[in-house]
Design a protein that fits this description.
M1 Pyruvate Kinase, Domain 3, Pyruvate Kinase, Chain: A, domain 1, 8-stranded parallel beta barrel, 8-stranded mixed sheet, about 35% helix, nucleotide-binding, Pyruvate kinase, ATP binding, Pyr_Knase
Length: about 475
Amino acid sequence: MKKTKIIATIGPVSESPKDITALIKAGVNVFRFNMKHSTVEWHNEKIKIVQEISDSLEIPVGIMIDLQGPEVRIFTKNKEAVIFKKNESLIFGKSFSSPEIKIVIPHSNILKMLKPKDLFSIDNGFFEFEVIEKKNGFLYARALGDGIIKNRKGVNFPGKKTGLPSLINDDLKKLDMAARVKIDFIALSFCRTKEDVEFLRKEMKKRKITAQIVAKIENKEALNNIEEIIESADAIMIARGDLGVEIPIEQIAYWQKSIISKCREKRKPVIVATQMLMSMIDNPSPSRAEATDVANAVFNGTDAVMLSEETAAGKYPIKTIETMSRILDFNEKECPSLRLAPKPNSFVELISEAGMEIIENHKDFNITKALVFTSTGYSVRALSSLRPSIPVIAITNNKKTAEFSALLYGVTSFFVKFPTGAFRSPLPILNELKKQGLVKVGENVLIIHGGNWKRIEINNSLAIAKIN
C-alpha cells in the first residue's frame, strides 16, 4: 500500500457519487475543491457527498478548499475562447467597455503597472505576450506564439508585485461557507509572506474555522520568504505551474527538492502539485517523463502529490489515480526517499529519532508497524517526516489530528475517545486495532507516546510489543 498521499481535484468528470467512490478506492486521500470555479452551493453539496461516502466506506478522506487569493484571472467576451496567431496584437482592458477589447484583466492597477516591452503570460505560461503600448486605458500586447485562450485562465507577471490583497472579497465569502461545513485544509494561493498566512488565520478564527493552512508557493517573493512561510503555515504546496512561469524553468527541480527538505526539517507536510500526469487528461497512459516526475517526487521525500485537471476535467480520472498509486507504491518500495536526520529540537523529536533508529537499524526484530499515541499530532508528524519504511498508525483522541493525518506520508489515523480524556492502557485500543484489521496477532509493533498525556510515566516514551 502506497505511503505518499494523493490529492485529487474534484470537477465535472468526477463529481458523481459513483466516481467519488471509485476514486477513493483507487487511492485518493484528500479531495481538493477549487473555489475559483463553480458556485458555493455546488461546493457545499459535493463536500457533503464526499464526507458521506468516506463515512460509509470507513476510509478517512480529507477535504481541501483552494482559495483564489491574489491570483489574477482573465475574462473573455461571452466566455468564448480567443484564437490568435503569432505576432498578432490583442487589446486588453479592465472591462468590455469597447467592442475592440478581446480580453479583460479586471484590475486597473495591473494595467497601469505594465509598460511597453514588459512580458506576461496566460494559462500557466503556455501563452506569452509582450506589451506594445498603452492608449486610452487599453493595453496592446503582441502574441509571441499561436494559441487559444479560454475564459478564466490565470495570468502571470514575472518579477512584478501586483499589490493585490492576500484574500479577495470572494475568498471571504468562501470562508463563510467553510464555516458551515467540515473541512480539513485551506490552501492559500500565491502566498507571499508570513503575514498572508497570519491574515488568513485571523479570518478563520473570526469564523471559528479550525482547518489547517496550506501555503501555496507560486512566485519569487514566496521563495525569498520561504523559511518564514514554512514556519507560519501548517503545510506547504509547491505549485509548479505558476512557479514555473514566475522563475526560470531550469530552477524548478532545484526549488522542489530544496523546499521539500526544508519542510521535512521543520516537520511540516509538503505537497508537489501541477502537471504531474497531464497527458492523461486526453490519453489513457502518461508519458515516460511524467511517470519519472512522479517517482522523483517520491525520491525527493514529498508527503503528497496533487492532480488538477487530470481528475477535474480529464477523460480518465479513475485510471489516472490508479496509475499514480502504482507509480508511488513501486518507487517507495524500490527506491525510498532520502532519509534526513535533522537535529532534534524537542523531546518529541528525540523520541521519534530513537524510534526511527529501532525501525531502520534493527531489522532482525521484525517490527512491522509504528503505533503513535498522539493528541496534537506533533509526534506523528515528527516520525512521518523521517520517512520510516513501515506503516504508521496515528492513534488520537483529537478529531482534527485524525483528519490532518490524511496529508502525512505513510500515516493512517485511528480516532478513539478516551474516558474523561485520560489515557489508561493501550491494551483496549490494541484489541480494537486487531478487530479492524490494522494490526495482526504475532506482529511486533513499536509504540510511541507523545508528550501530551495525563500520565507522566508514558509521556515521550517508546515501547515494543507483540500483538497477542
